[in-house]
Specification:
Two copies of one chain form a homodimer. The first copy, chain A, is of the alpha/beta class. Chain A has two domains: 166 residues, Rossmann fold; 183 residues, Dihydrodipicolinate Reductase, domain 2, CATH 3.30.360.10. A nine-stranded mixed sheet of chain A has the order 14-13-12-11-7-10-9-8-15. A six-stranded parallel sheet of chain A has the order 3-2-1-4-5-6, sandwiched between helices. In chain A, helix 4 crosses helix 11, helix 6 packs parallel to helix 7 and helix 7 runs antiparallel to helix 12. Chain A is globular. The N terminus of chain A is likely disordered. At the A-B interface, strand 7, strand 8, strand 9 and strand 10 of A face strand 7, strand 8, strand 9 and strand 10 of B. Chains A, B: Keywords: Oxidoreductase, Signal. Chains A, B: Belongs to the Gfo/Idh/MocA family. Chains A, B: It holds the Pfam family GFO_IDH_MocA.
Amino acid sequence: MKSRRIFLQKAGLSALALNISTFNPISAMPNFLDAKKMDEKPLRVAIMGLGSYGTRVAEAIQETKRTKLVGVISGTPSKVEAWKTKYGIPAKNCYNYENFDAIKDNPDIDAVYVITPNGLHKDQVIRVAKAGKHAICEKPMAVNAADGQAMIDACKAAGVHLLIGYRMHFEANTLEVIKMRKAGEFGTPLFFQGLSGFIIGDPSQWRLQKSLSGGGAMMDIGIYSINGARYMLGEDPIWVTAQETKNNPEKFKEGIDETIQFQMGFPSGAVASCLSTYSMNNLDRFFLNGTKGWAEMQPSTGYGPIKGKTNQGPLDKPHTTHQAVQMDEMAAIIFDGKKPEVPVNGEEGVKDMKIIDAIFKAVKTGEKVTLKLA
Amino acid sequence: MKSRRIFLQKAGLSALALNISTFNPISAMPNFLDAKKMDEKPLRVAIMGLGSYGTRVAEAIQETKRTKLVGVISGTPSKVEAWKTKYGIPAKNCYNYENFDAIKDNPDIDAVYVITPNGLHKDQVIRVAKAGKHAICEKPMAVNAADGQAMIDACKAAGVHLLIGYRMHFEANTLEVIKMRKAGEFGTPLFFQGLSGFIIGDPSQWRLQKSLSGGGAMMDIGIYSINGARYMLGEDPIWVTAQETKNNPEKFKEGIDETIQFQMGFPSGAVASCLSTYSMNNLDRFFLNGTKGWAEMQPSTGYGPIKGKTNQGPLDKPHTTHQAVQMDEMAAIIFDGKKPEVPVNGEEGVKDMKIIDAIFKAVKTGEKVTLKLA
């Protein structure tokens, strides 16, 4: 699919040609319709930060119907050269971290997807906003809520969208569980459990440097359990408690959390019990329990496929590349004003940051921290 | 099996007859051997408290190889009459709560299994000990650690055994996971999760009366997660934190916990995250995660069958009635001095009570409570 899309882009073939050349007319229909939309107006995206996740997003964009990778911002000239060749990116759409404010004068770029270390997001998103481009920012949006709010303010002032890279918010099985919960099929939701963990490798990576990451596992993957608690219960927490355990202080230095257990309470009386760790694999599970039923997702946030079941049976929505769905949905938000089932805007991002701030405070003080997110 | 055993007991048939009458000689072999042991010397048990769990134990005893139900202690004469008939219990082995100290003069009873409300265990077990009989006490052994210690002291002074009704400590799949953990098949254990919950019915039952129960869900089922954390990780906790949520204060009055989330830390750096509730079904799950593998049991503590799997495959030990295995193993402890894989003595019970005391303190103070169980 990816190579076909690239081929078609390069060859300048029409959407109609794409449809005709497809064997299966049923599966081709959405392609036909959406490719038509793309001809009308694709969201032209530059990726800032050409690391492994940036690469994943670039690949996913090749699968999208309404977005196009048109530019890059990177501090590594060799990467820029490789991407220019691979994705047919024109030299005029390539920037580095010093000169990318000039993007404001580039009419061929609509949005910048910031996929850099967390600690850099704030300044970079603000610069993107000032350049008049929509900002898509990888999660966590920042390293604390205050920075997140500054990003919202800058984007509002510039009249551009700020969207957070919450790919799970668009995942089909996740949305199915949310739909079932809203329809009352689990009764009253009372408990959410989120386990998020993997054993992190290279100790020199930016994710283990406080100035770049803003924290450890919590910032990187604990946020999935926070997201999950909120969208699966359908509420925002009013308190958090948290307990940190650090078994390897050499690898996980001051300010880099290795393992945090955290709990949240919600206005309805529902509770959440979560764990975030950089020291264990086999932890990617969501569990929602209500008075009438339950949902279990495992894996719940990996790149897919997401697997799960409810008291009614398996969750069987087909897998699609998360980042591709995310990008197309973000194009719909920007172009059509579409309201996603679960918000992915800056305000949503700041709620998560406020919760992370509270978790860190709870770890530090040992006390229950109350929250007011509304 | 139950009715056959009763028949054989009544008919006075020999163990050899049992063996010969069995179609499958392989499955019959243990029966043959153990029935022989029983002929030699069964543990003759009186049950104190003829409620639903007492009834379950009585039925299980019919399946055992080395124990025999020979007496009852009850405050309800109609129940005593029914049990006399059903189990062939002689009138001289029937007592009530006023006169059961006279059991000391009854040479036909070896042990009393106390299956009464938690708040009564202490005095009743001490009276059993003073009567010179071995005490088997349903869990939780008491309503706090101090009472539990008093029970230990009384049994020691009387030279009788004190065993706690920890049926899971003898369950085959549970023991398989423990064996695998000890063999290092999960690597270093780092995380245990225990979820224990069901929706409790009749609000007038003793379990919802503080003076009889000593607490709510924690005393009744939270203790399973505490047990699980300890035997699956193979350590005793050094700290606990806990958060209580009460959504129905009419049903769950002062001192009766509805839902408690609790966390424990262990000397190795492992952590446990648990939930105990009387307001949710579908919560009976253990999960053990180590550096090399994991085990999941769900259901993990129900009356069975226990189901589970590890990273190596399904746990497939066949189901046997938990209470029957427990009783036979307890006979082996008493008669043979057998050391069970996981202790079930009073000291083990007091450790759990100390943890529950600490959880209640953590709920009350909102602070981390340190523990020294060794």
